[in-house]
């Protein structure tokens, strides 16, 4: 097992990782962590919230709350760079950490309780890898509960994570009883610094390596129950089977993909084919944790996505008013137009379904 957390430290590496830790400590000192009790599972969700944010001049009060869901390795704090950036842009943001659920059904019920308890009206939810997978299962069941979803390096099925897909539901539960030291080693070897990372063959950007080391340190903040349950969830036999997601419009789905992530290629291609009419945002580098390595670019993608959804909704509403006015007054009443500048600051390249930065 390669343990990149115990490699010979250099002054540069120590400073870089220390810098991330210092930034994180500053974030935690300024932002209180909160908890919500799930009465069904008797478990707690933890989260950060910028409820005291100051709206920017460009921010619109109609912007939905953005909920951030971590992946298999994350915590509520792993999004702190992105959280701060979205706060600067004027968005209400909540970074949530889900507890040790063992089935997607428990997770779905828990997330529904979470957004209902916080009285979130159709939030936009951003989910990385496992978080994005569970999010799709949620939308498949409750499509009217969310405004839109953003899936970062995610997937819609889990069979490629197992050498024996037909039995993964059975042996997946074994991970929930393993001790922390074994689970931590598995996470470092297979999720944070996996063998297919080709560490010895390709140069890894320093900030990507620092992000890996930061995420490795964060494993100590998670219990063995947390770590084991996430692997159990990733090895579930459940999958997203409804291409329509129960009527959830494809323009409400944004896929974000880093070209050097470690999600199996077949799953990456599968989700893009599944949501072929949805937009895709590509980031050349950034690794598995672009919210740590490329938070500014991720924030731009989110802003563009929300602006275009807002424009689409307003445009449809104006068309409806225009149609009603025409029918009522035979075209004498006109509705106001929305200028293109009000739509977005950065446009989609709709021909190639790629967001241009």
Short description:
The protein is an alpha/beta fold and 357 residues long. It has one domain: 3-Layer(aba) Sandwich (Rossmann fold). The chain has helices spanning 11-30, 80-88, 104-117, 129-141, 168-171, 180-192, 206-218, 224-234, 265-274, 290-293, 295-329; strands at residues 33-38, 43-49, 66-69, 93-97, 124-128, 148-152, 253-258, 279-283, 348-349, 354-355.
Provide structural commentary.
By secondary structure, the protein is of the alpha/beta class. It has one domain: 3-Layer(aba) Sandwich (Rossmann fold), CATH 3.40.50. The protein is built from eleven helices and ten strands. Helix 2 (80-88) crosses helix 11 (295-329) and helix 3 (104-117) packs across helix 4. It starts with 10 loop residues before the first helix and ends with a strand.
Q: What descriptive keywords fit this protein?
A:
single chain; alpha/beta; 357 residues; Maspardin; Rossmann fold; 41% helix; AB_hydrolase_fold
Looking at the overall shape, the CATH architecture is 3-Layer(aba) Sandwich
Helical fraction equals 40-55%
Overall structural class, as computed from helix and strand content, comes to alpha/beta
The CATH superfamily label reads Alpha/Beta hydrolase fold, catalytic domain
Largest sheet: number of strands, sense, barrel closure:
8 strands, mixed
Quaternary state of this entry equals single chain
N-to-C terminal Cα separation, in Å? 38 Å
CATH fold descriptor: Rossmann fold
What would you call the shape? globular
Percent of residues in beta strands:
5-15%
* Strand segment count: 10
Q: Largest beta sheet: what is the strand line-up?
A: 1-2-4-3-5-6-7-8
CATH class: Alpha Beta
Number of domains: 1
* DSSP helical segment count: 11
The succession of helices and strands, N to C, reads: HEEEHEHEHEHHHHEHEHHEE
Keywords: Cytoplasm
Protein name: Maspardin
Subcellular location: Cytoplasm
Pfam families: Abhydrolase_1
């Amino acid at each position: 097992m390669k343990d990149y957390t115990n490699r010979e430290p250099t002054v540069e590496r120590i400073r870089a990782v220390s810098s991330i830790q210092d930034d994180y400590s500053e974030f935690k000192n300024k932002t209180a962590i909160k908890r919500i009790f799930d009465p069904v599972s008797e478990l707690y969700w933890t989260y950060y919230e910028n409820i005291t944010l100051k709206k920017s001049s460009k921010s619109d009060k109609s912007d939905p709350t953005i909920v951030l869901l971590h992946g298999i390795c994350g915590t509520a704090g792993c999004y702190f760079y992105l959280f701060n950036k979205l706060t600067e842009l004027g968005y209400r943001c909540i970074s949530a950490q889900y507890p040790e659920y063992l089935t997607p059904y428990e997770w779905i019920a828990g997330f529904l309780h979470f957004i209902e308890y916080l009285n979130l009206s159709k939030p936009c939810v951003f989910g990385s890898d496992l978080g994005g997978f569970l999010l799709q299962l949620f939308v498949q069941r409750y499509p009217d509960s969310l405004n839109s979803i953003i899936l970062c390096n995610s997937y819609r099925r889990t069979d490629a994570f197992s050498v024996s897909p037909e039995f993964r539901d059975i042996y997946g539960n074994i991970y929930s009883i393993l001790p922390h030291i074994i689970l931590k080693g598995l996470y470092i070897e297979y999720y944070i610094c996996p063998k297919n990372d080709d560490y010895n063959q390709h140069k890894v950007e320093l900030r990507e390596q620092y992000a890996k080391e930061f995420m490795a340190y964060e494993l100590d903040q998670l219990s063995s129950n947390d770590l084991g349950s996430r692997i159990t969830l990733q090895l579930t036999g459940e999958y997203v089977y409804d291409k329509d997601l129960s009527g959830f419009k494809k323009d409400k789905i944004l896929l974000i993909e880093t070209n050097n992530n470690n999600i199996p290629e077949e799953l990456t291609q599968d989700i893009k084919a599944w949501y072929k009419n949805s937009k895709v945002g590509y980031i050349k580098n950034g690794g598995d944790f672009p919210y740590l390595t490329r938070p500014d670019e991720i924030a731009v993608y989110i802003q563009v996505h929300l602006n275009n959804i807002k424009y689409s909704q307003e445009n449809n509403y104006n068309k409806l008013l225009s149609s009603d006015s025409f029918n009522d007054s035979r075209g004498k009443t006109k509705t106001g137009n929305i200028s293109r500048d009000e739509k977005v600051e950065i446009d989609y390249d709709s021909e190639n379904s790629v967001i241009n930065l």
